[in-house]
Amino acid sequence: MNGSIVGRSLPRVDGIEKATGQAKYVDDLDLAGMLHGKILRSPLSHARIIRIDTQKAEKLPGVKGIVTANDTLKIPFSFPPHLKDKYPLEFEKVRCIGDEIAAVAAVDKDIAEEAIGLIDVEFEELTSVFDPIEAMKPGAPEVHEGTRNNISRKIEWEYGNVQKGFEESDYVFENRFTTSRPTHCSLEPHGALAYVDNTGKLTIWMTVQNPHTVKEELANLLGLASHQVRVIKPPIGGAFGARIMMDPLDVICAHLALKCGKPVKIINSRKEEFYASRGRLPMIIDLKTGVTKDGKIVSREATVIADKGAYNSHGPRVLGYAGKALFSLYNMPHTKFTGLTVYTNNPYSGAFRGFGNPQVTFASECQLDMIAESLKIDPIEFRLKNVVKSGDVAPTGAKITSCGIEECFLRSARLSGWKERQVERKKNRGFGVACMIHSSGAKGFFGDSNLSDSFVKMNPDGSVVIYSGASDLGQGSDTALTQIVAEELGVNFEKVKIVSADTDTTPVDYGSFGTRVTFAAGNAVKMAANVVKKQIFEVAAELLEAHEDDLVAHGGVVHVMFHPGRSLPIEKIARTAYYDMGKPLSGRGFYNGPDSPSPDVTTYFGNTSPAYCFAAQVAEVEVDPETGSVKILNFVAAHDLGRAINPMAAEGQVEGGVVQGIGYALMEDLVCNKGVVLNPNFSDYKVLKAPDVPPIEPILVESNDPNGPFGAKGVAEPALVPTAPAIANAIYDAIGVRITDLPITPEKIIRALREKRKTSKES
Amino acid sequence: MKKRIRILVNREWQEFVVDCNKSLLDALRDILRLTGTKRGCNTGDCGACSVILDGKLVNACLVLAVEADGKSVLTIEGLASKDELHPLQKSFVENGAIQCGFCTPGMILTAKALLDDHPNPSEDEIRRAIAGNICRCTGYVKIVKAINSLVGGHK
Which residue, A69, A145, A344, A757, is the most exposed by fewest CB within 10 angstroms? Predict the structure, then answer.
């Protein structure tokens, strides 16, 4: 069915307020008597805290309150809760540089900063460990007391028998890949504004992706009843996973507000954003794959060792998802996954766009390219031979519904000139391809569900308000949900408003993560709108003397099918409903898919997601063998998103994701030495700027998912997943060297070229 | 040490007392409460605080407030007229050039400074002009498109 609103590139609902500077982000908010907070962070990577002396700081004029762990309930937290290992303010030990020790609230930022400098902390320095392999050896410093070999989580499963599979394979390939520590670099630094009113109720504005679930966690840590906490997400300046769940900053801000009896605002400096925030989990991936000579994958074993840094945060879940993603894309009878997150005294990672998938997809798609070359099979043909299709159950138990990966390959190959690449080979130029699968939301992040609840009401004037807990991080969910409701109700887009992401005024939604929003919240608001539509039709049927089943709503008008003359504007129906009949027009809808039973607790086998997104990306590069620099000549990214609710917005997500992916491939990395981040600023941490961006051509493939709202799945989060391997494969095609360690810097390319020349001289 | 200064901000004279070590960004946001100009890094690396000072594009975090004494400043709040958005604002909204919006005020002012000086830039020149404005969401593609669509005198 052709949508008149869904499927259109309408301008986003918050575009004007952002273009005029009227949108108020956390640091733009101001409350009377507001104080400014600053956190004292550990300068040491591993030390026992002997004594914290705040006396001098307390005496500084303008200081209104100081908190240490003694002002808290000393309850640890993490995500997931059963792996909790982080106190908002540490009191026994610090385990990484940046670890929170104390915080000050003062009348202005300068005084707060000065006061931090006056807090005296006596440490007993301990030996640090910075390498995960070293950290697992006997005798290594224990980052968390009682954690054997510093292994915070071990995940292992085997389906089939990989050893048998390798014996049955014609060829077996074994390769190691290592990935880096990029960080989110959201343009708005992390921040919170906390305020406690005279009833003891805490209201906190946060840069957060999931207000409803954070509220519970906050209440728990603060010792407040849950109904005494209100979490509001204002417009936020990017997230990319940095803001799922709480940061110690949020709890500390609340503690300061409680202690001082005044509103307190804490905003990270850019430096803190680099060294004290949760980036991507770096992994050492050993991949062993067995194939038949005609290109069928028979057996695959992956071992992942991840440097968790000082605390768990989302790490263990990222590891688990990495295993799932790695083994859900291709059919094969034998699979084995062993994953470890290992504590070290490095800065600790959390959740970052892709949630483990970019790391393993880099390894997998690079190795598959090596295999295709060995077997002399075209890389795309090889993938198509093994990739899952609609109706398949993947090795992990993932149930594939809509699957547009074939079309992704076809269209990206066509647009990029893939087929012609062999015809006229240019020196130092090459093509590379990679593909991916990603969950569109999943059960099991919070308890066993994937809930999104929503309300929709129509006012007597025919305008509509949506209430959804879903969070717009800039990816445009507010707009997409508005389009879905307008389409469903047949009202004009401009007449629909959305209230979102406030725990007092919106129903529960678990948050914006895991590519779940369009699917889960979209389905919820569509259901709620449908309830309202039925109510409208009930009234309209009476007014038009027709049967409800014969009515259609379109463009703000309800008319009888095939009788456009018999119609009524929706405002008239609404007014009549409210004022003449006393019938309110409001509805509720919710979503909690998929219907599948939860995965087995010990084997992890099962289907967690209601739908899966797919993509194929093709990179064309030119490498300068003298300088090692890589120029991307063209980049084509074909993404199966089920249905594009807003094509312009979807393209924007693909383009932005690809650019982050290029950064991941070629330049982004927090350079850590002995736990110190050496490049905590935008001059030394390289992100792409406008002149660095190659021509990017996004292709939206619509496979029309049977369970998605109007057929839609997600697209935003995984847009960067195949980018790094596509580029790595293109570099190999261009100059014959394969770099298996991210980022692929010019130095690594030159070193590899030298090695290649040396080996060919020797042979 | 404090000083009393006068700045013509968005065509209106503002007079206030400011510490000599405060930046123009601090003055705009914290004293004048014009929060449209954003603080992304405070070290001149990200461009989120771009404003136009006496007709020249600057990072407000790198200008001392006292340096702007007697000068004119244009911020994002001064762009739209009472009844109408500036063509750049309209173009950004219509072309999908805004996602999280945090880079948007700085980006639009940078684009304005470019088009004021060079009404017909090439796409390369547009990219170089906004090279000092980091955007983490869009990949710059639709931002360049939005600016490009105004090239050829639709100011």
Answer: A145
Q: Which residues have C-beta within 8 Å of that of residue B74, sequence separation ≥ 6?
A: B10, B51, B52, B109, B112
Say what the pLDDT of residue A3 is.
Answer: 56
The upper half-sphere exposure of residue A389, i.e. CA atoms within 13 Å in the direction of its Cβ, equals: 6
B138 or A419, higher pLDDT: B138
DSSP category for residue A579: I
Query: Can you state the angle between helices B141-148 and B87-94, rounded to 10 degrees?
Result: 140
A429-439 and A35-41 strand pairing: unpaired
Specify the pairing of strand A151-159 against strand A334-343. Answer: antiparallel
Nearest in space to A235 (alpha carbons), one of A31, A34, A37, A22: A22
CA distance linking residue A71 with residue A433, whole number of Å:
54
Q: Which residue's entry shows tokens 């009191």?
A: A91
The amino acid at residue A427 is K
| 3-state secondary structure at position A130 | coil
Contact yes or no for A702/A611 (Cβ under 8 A): no
DSSP state of A313: T
Backbone angles phi, psi at A495, to 5 degrees: -90, 5
Q: What is the pLDDT, as a whole number, of residue B155?
A: 43
Q: The complex's ipTM? A: 0.98
pTM above 0.95, yes or no: yes
Average pLDDT, chain A: 96
Q: Dihedral sign for Cα B22, B23, B25, B31, please.
A: positive
Question: A237 and B102: CB-CB below 8 Å?
Answer: yes
**Would strands A229-232 and A297-309 be described as parallel, antiparallel, or unpaired?**
unpaired
Residues of B in contact with A270 (CB under 8 A): 40-43, 45-46
Residue pair A243/A190 in contact (Cβ under 8 Å)? The answer is yes
Q: Distance (Å, rounded) from C-alpha B49 to C-alpha A580?
A: 54
Nearest residue on chain A to B75, judged by CA atoms?
Answer: A21
Q: Which two tokens stand for residue A705?
A: 């998912």
Q: Which of residues 209-268 of A touch B (CB under 8 A)?
A: 235-240, 267
Q: Does A32 touch chain B (CB under 8 A)?
A: no
Residues ≥6 apart with Cβ < 8 Å to A549: none
- Is A326:A318 a contact under the CB 8 Å cutoff? no
Of A24-28, A137-141, A245-249, A685-689, the least confident? A245-249
Quick: pLDDT tens for A415-468.
Answer: 999 989 888 889 999 999 999 999 998 887 777 888 999 999 999 999 999 999
Under 8 Å CB-to-CB from A317, ≥6 apart: which residues?
A79, A80, A351, A355, A445
